[in-house]
Specification:
The chain is α/β, with parallel strands linked by helices. The protein has helices at 11-40, 49-73, 127-132, and strands spanning 7-9, 75-77, 93-98, 103-110, 121-123, 140-145, 148-158. The strands form two sheets. It has a five-stranded mixed sheet with strand order 5-4-3-7-6. The chain has a two-stranded parallel sheet with strand order 1-2. Helix 1 (11-40) runs antiparallel to helix 2.
């Protein structure tokens, strides 16, 4: 049997997924059904581009609903109150020093579903996330990235 991967989310991430699936099931399904109904009224379905486009949109939406439902069945919610500030873990806010460039950066480690590098939310499965996990303030961590080796010194761990 294939083992399903546990999805790690913050309470905000869980709410976002629940809101998305609610929207898809209530609003989006009805919109697409209306598009299909309208396209059918145009006659011959074999050469009906509107019908084909609506059916494609419906298939993609149903796939997304199934994907979210699967994630929600295997979710583990990590609350800020559970965050350990002694070592880096999921939901930790980590301030690091890029040793080579003498620049400080701050990351929040999240599960892969919530990762958003533009907001400095990095996945625990990313090269930087993996390297930082389990380390403590004062430790220097070597990170193998696609751009080469980076050394980070951990300055702070917070919630």
């Amino acid at each position: 049997m294939v083992e399903t991967k546990q999805v790690i989310l913050t309470p905000e991430g869980l709410k976002k997924l629940e809101d998305e699936i609610e929207y898809l099931k209530t609003v989006k399904r009805k919109d697409i059904a209306d598009k299909i109904k309208e396209a059918r009224s145009f006659g011959d379905l074999s050469e009906n581009a509107e019908y084909d486009a609506a059916k494609d949109e419906q298939a993609k939406m149903e796939l997304r609903i199934a994907e979210i439902e699967k994630m929600l069945k295997n979710v583990r919610v990590v609350d800020q109150a559970d965050v350990d500030t002694d070592q880096v873990g999921i939901c930790s806010r980590v301030k690091v020093l890029d040793v080579e460039f003498d620049e400080e950066e701050e990351f929040v480690l999240v599960g892969s579903t919530e990762a958003d590098p533009n907001k400095n939310k990095i996945s625990d499965e990313s090269p930087i996330g993996k390297a930082l996990m389990g380390h403590r303030v004062g430790e220097t961590v070597d990170v193998e990235t696609p751009g080469g080796m980076i050394q980070y010194k951990i300055l702070e761990i917070g919630k």
